[in-house]
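Thread: "does anyone have the structure for this chain?"

Original post by V.I.:
We have the sequence but no experimental structure in hand. Need at least a predicted one for the grant figures.
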Amino acid sequence: MGILLDDAVIIRQPEKEEEPTVITVNCPDKTGLGSDLCRIILFFGLTLVRTDVSTDGKWCYIVLWVVGRQNTRWGLLKKRLMEACPSSSLASGILYYAQLQPPKPPHVFLLKFCCLDRSGLLHDVTEVLCELELTIKRVKVSTTPDGKVMDLFFLTDARELLHTKKGKEDTYEHLKGVIGDTMMSCEIEMVGPEITVCCQGTSFLSDAVTQGMFNIDEPRDDSSTALQWPSVAMDNSLSPSHTLLQLVCQDHKGLLYDVMRTLKDYNIQISYGRITTKENTKCEMDLFIMHADGKKIVDPSKQDRLKSRLEMELSRPLRVSLISRGPDTELLVANPVELSGKGRPLVFYDITLALKMLDTPIFSAEIGRYVIRDREWEVYRVLLDEGDVGCVSKEKVEETVWKMLMSWK
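Reply from O.Q.:
Generated one for you, tokens below.
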């Protein structure tokens, strides 16, 4: 019933250690496929160094050159990429009723544990959850005056690990391995949507914060958390059926994902594309694109809207700000949410890793979603320990978090 062949995704390891791994995807095409694949690549912590894309509108051929980590689970990566590929039944125009239905929302689980606090604890727990492919939807972290922490993680489970008793026990053992004997309690249970809504709290973002962080205008020249302004050009003279989109921009982690998710939100398909990175600082893209209905992008107003959105997404893919709330210091990190409802992967992981490297304790943390100027944002709010944040300058905290998110040294 339209099952993909095993060679739909091929991962070829390099002969030399310094060479990249080559991932080949050969499957039916769909609008947004590139975004879905890039999101998986980003989730596994891989860096794209080159990409070739080719499609006839029904079938696509994608080659990704990636640099991986030593602990990359290549077999699992292949499985996840295979799952993102459309069924081969789509290529012949056969759509089954089940394929036409919107996906069911995933079950949400509440992980609640209490233990003694220590430096880097939140990141170590986050790392375990990421390794288990548990997606953090919400988090509420609080520290008591006597040095205990009560952490609430609202998770979705791609592997359905938490649906079984054994899976919950395995998760507990992994957490026990990083928390140690200071763990006092640990519970995992499935919860309904009404619980997750209630636990979001009544926190809000002030007008001053939204004005500064979510300004849709061009970033200020003095912004320390903005990339170089990209060059975006469109040309309809080189192809009878496609618009050529040319991008030159500063490289950063998730760059191709940022481009692909933007095109996906605009319901635009890529028929051919080549992406190269030069000297690890600049990226050049040539993409032949068209609307999902097969038409070129000729309307000047539509071109301007797409160009403006790409310029903003590539200059400020995330927003980072450190603000003072009386005696307290709060770190805010925000990223736009796809129209499909998916947020950017591994943001909380990078935030907690950066703070762990700075040995900056976290007093509390939460993840929330806010609709600002007709757009949904995922906002990470981290309250830093007021007794220790003074040891590191605010500029250093903001810079370190930003560089971690961008994968810069």
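V.I.: this helps a lot. The chain has a mean pLDDT of 85.
O.Q.: and Residues 6 and 82 are 8 Å apart (CA to CA).
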